[in-house]
Amino acid sequence: MRTGEIGRTGDGRAIDLSGGTARAAGPRRERVLPLVVARLADGPRRARRFAVGSAEAVRGLEAVLGTVGSNGHGPGQLSAEIAPADVVEYVRALAPDEVYVVVDRSADEEIVTLLGARLLMDGLPVHLVVPGLGAPSVRTTVTRLGRHTCISLAATGESRGVSALRRAADILGAALLLLCTAPIMLIVAALVRWTTGSPVIYAHERVGRFRKRFSLYKFRSMVPDAERILRQSPEIYRRYVAANYKLPEEEDPRITPLGRFLRRTSLDEMPQLWNVIRGDMSLIGPRPVVPEEVAEYGDYARLLLRVRPGLTGAWQVGGRSLITYPERARIDLQYVAARTLPQDVRILFRTVPAVLRRRGVV
C-alpha cells in the first residue's frame, strides 16, 4: 500500500512524520515510512490481538507474544504495511479485541494518540509498549486532575530490605570465598612475584555505583609498565578501544606468559573479592567499566551506574569476550533494569561452568 502524504505547516513547509517528534523540513517531499500491523497469537478467551509499530518493533512483540498460523488466512490478513494516515481506520476495521502499539523513536505522537483514543472509545484495551536496551522497571498509576487524566510513571528500585539482604550476601559470600581460596591466592602471588617481580597486585581505576571511582584489584598479568606501552602506540590504543577495551592475547605485548594462564582461568580476578567486601562491587552485577567507557553508554550510563558492578554477571557467563561491545552493553542494561535475587543465584551457579569451560575468556 502506498504511503500517505506528509504533513505540512501553515507556511507550506513539510513535516516529517516518521521520526516521533515533528520537525520542520525543507520543501522537498520525503517518503513517510509505513507502519506494520500484524496479527499476534490469540490471547485469553481467544482474544484477537494485533501489534502496530515499525517492522523491527513488531518482530520483537511477535517473539514475545507469538504469531498465529497462516492456515485459513489470505495474503495481507496476518501482516501489512500501512501508511500512518490510514492506520487508525485500518486497525479498527480488523475488529481487534486488544491492540499493542509500540512507542519508539519512529512512532508519530499524533498517530499514536489518535489510534489509542479511537480504540478506547470503541471499548478496546490498548497496550503502549516502550522498547529499549534497558528501560528501568516502572510503577504506573492513573489519577484524575480535574477534567484531565494523569498517567504517572515512577522508576522502581530495590526495597531497603532487599538491598540490605544483597549486601549481607555479598559480604558473607566474599568472605567465605576469600577463606576458601586463600591458599590458591598465596601460590598465585608467589608466582607473580617470582616471574615478574613487584607489584603483585594491579590496581586499575573503574567507575562504580553513582559514578564513584574506585581501584579494581587484580593479580598482575602484565609487565610492570603496561599502561605506558598501551599509551605510547596510537595504533595499539586504537585497536584496544575498538576491541571492547581489550586486546587479543596474540596481539597484546603487555601480557606475560603467566598472565595468559591467569586470565584464561580467571585466577587474576580473585583479589576483586576484597572490592566486594569494601563495597566497591557486588558478587553479581554488570561489568565494571573504565572511565572512557561511560560515554559509550550515552544516557543509559545513568541506568548502568545505579547499581554496583559485579565480580560476575550476565555478560560474563554469556560468553565474555566472544560477545560484541553493543551486545555486552545490552545484556548489562537489561540485567540492571530487571534484576532479582533469584536471577543472581542462577548467574552465580552458571559462573563456575563458564570459568571451567574458559568460554570467551581473554
What does this structure look like?
There is one protein chain. The chain is an alpha/beta fold and 362 residues long. The protein folds into two domains: 7-131, no CATH class; 160-221 and 256-357, no CATH class. Helix content is 40%, strand content 17%. It has 13 helices and 13 strands. The strands form five sheets. Strands 5-3-4-6-7 form a five-stranded mixed beta sheet, with helices on both faces. Strands 1-2 form a two-stranded antiparallel sheet. Helix 2 runs parallel beside helix 3 (109-121) and helix 4 runs antiparallel to helix 8 (272-278). The longest helix is centred in the middle third of the chain and has 37 residues, at 160-196. The two termini are 51 Å apart.
List the helices and strands and how they pair.
Elements: E1 7-8, E2 14-15, E3 35-39, E4 49-53, H1 55-65, E5 79-82, H2 87-93, E6 98-102, H3 109-121, E7 126-129, E8 138-145, E9 148-155, H4 160-196, E10 201-207, E11 213-219, H5 226-232, H6 234-242, H7 257-265, H8 272-278, E12 282-284, H9 291-294, H10 301-304, E13 310-312, H11 314-317, H12 325-338, H13 341-357
Parallel strand pairs: 4-6, 6-7, 12-13
Antiparallel strand pairs: 1-2, 3-4, 3-5, 8-9, 10-11
Helix pairs in contact: 2-3, 4-8
Question: Short description, anyone?
Answer:
The chain is α/β, with parallel strands linked by helices. It is 40% helix and 17% strand.
